[in-house]
Amino acid sequence: MWLSRIGISRAGGGLLFFATCFLSGALEAQPSNGYVFFAPGGVTCCHNTSMTLQFGVGGEAVLWKGIGAGAELSALGLRQYFSDTVMGVFSPNGYYHFRHEENIKADPFVTGGYSLLFRTGHANFANFGGGMTYWFHSHLGARFELRDQINTMGTIGHFWGVRFGLAFH
């Protein structure tokens, strides 16, 4: 299967449940925002690229002077065979926001962290990206982001996407 070519092996998903419960409690006590997104993109491996679709939800807490922590859960699969190839992605990340003042409209950021891809097995990836949230209302904004998830163990594979979404306080 194409997932085994980029290092997805067999294992359970208990880590996902534990990490989601642990991180959601930690984020609840901080100033935070949540988001939903849709991301057309691709998987590039072995000199080939196939189109992917990803959608998910996430949350983030700004901890101190633009530094934040967050987590997201999403579904990712090949566009043409989405139901046959869909897998889960759990990503705890660090964030840095370039603007620190309150009541800003444009909020550019960079992010990076870990991604756990899972289906009947799992794979460990690193991720990085950047984007901007434009707050057109005090509680609602439009989010745009470029994100790459890369596996450097064995065959190098990239799951990259252009994310469009909504952010909310």
Query: What order do the strands of the largest sheet run in, or round the barrel if closed?
Result: 2-3-4-5-6-7-8-9
Low-confidence parts lasting 5 or more residues at pLDDT below 50? 9-30
* CATH class wording: Mainly Beta
Helix content: 10-25%
Question: What value does the Rg take, in angstroms?
Answer: 16 Å
**What is the end-to-end distance?**
41 Å
Q: How would a textbook summarize the main sheet?
A: 8 strands, antiparallel, barrel
| Average predicted confidence as pLDDT | 82
Report the principal-axis shape.
globular
| CATH architecture assignment name | Beta Barrel
User: Helix count, per DSSP?
Assistant: 3
Classify the beta-strand content into a percent band: over 45%
Give the H and E element order. HEHEEEHEEEEE
Structural class: mainly beta
Describe the structure.
The chain is mainly β and 169 residues long. It has an eight-stranded antiparallel β-barrel. Strand 2 and strand 3 form a beta hairpin. The chain has a single domain (2-63, 70-168), classed as Beta Barrel (Porin). Helix content is 14%, strand content 65%.
